[in-house]
Amino acid sequence: MSRRVPQFFATLACMASKKAVKSVTTGAAKRVVRARLAPRKDKRGLTAADITLAPDSPEVAVLAMQVRAAGGAVIAAYREPFSGRPLLLAALPLASLQPTPFQRDLSPTHTKRLARKIEEAGSFLDPLIVVHGEDGKLWTPNGRHRLAAAKLLGLRQITVLASPDEDLAFRILALNTEKAHNLKDRSLEVIRMARTLAKRRPRARESEFAAEFEAPELLTLGVIYENSSRFGGGAYSPFLKKVERFSERSLPAGLRDREGYAARIMTIETEVKRIVAGLQERGFSSPYLRNYVVARINPVRFHRAKKGDTAPPMPLAAALTRMAAAAKKFNLGSVKPGDVALVAAVAADDN
Question: Which of 13, 23, 101, 233 has its C-alpha lying 20 to 30 A from 154's C-alpha?
């Protein structure tokens, strides 16, 4: 390993150099990207005549009844212009709505700021997406903070776009831009979604939900964040991206596997904390010590995937075994101040 360590830091230095060059040409790159944003020549979707839909249409009749039963009102119905799926524009009392159980945790700070901005604008213009959830409930998969802000403002009713497509709740989270996701938020959403789907569709394979879950490492990180909210997943994410793949096993079986992987990562994290403490005793004080240690014990840090190669460099279980072994035999005396500085420079540039 000692002969490969210089190569590791040479690679980091190269990365930092490339990023510096890239920053100089950012303006030109943006101009190139803008030039490529040409509209499609072949048009898709519905015409104006196709979009119209009667509120009493059979496609939305059951949903319309549910809206009225909840104390709301149907305003209009239409077919969504891209897919043609039916939607209701409706008003619903706030008490009839709740966020999906797998969304990110509510941020009181963001909610208060959002409520203040809505009041300053004098209008609440962005309808919530609503679907039929479990036990007859109405779920919003993308409006948790807007719903909470509406409650702070004391609104009686809120406008919604209601869809009879229950699976939309699982697909729409990837489009949620109301509040930027961080790694923890996204991982928790994905694992909560996976646990809900495992109960609803226990025979479905994990790989069937690749679009909904977005990235396989989010499932494993989500398991960890469920039990350790202050875990720094960013240090392990580059490693997991290389070795994680969606499983062909059923959702419940896949979750059991990932719980095992998560437990092994937390064992490794205990060793990483021991190493960081040892480095601090030797006078190292960089906030990137943990990133440095995790990068050093990453068994696939030198792997570069070839174009079209989708197979992992090694199975996750084997990679974790090697990672744990590297952590236990980590040589504190091999660390030089310049090594940590390089990791800090690359990490800062990534931010």
Answer: 101
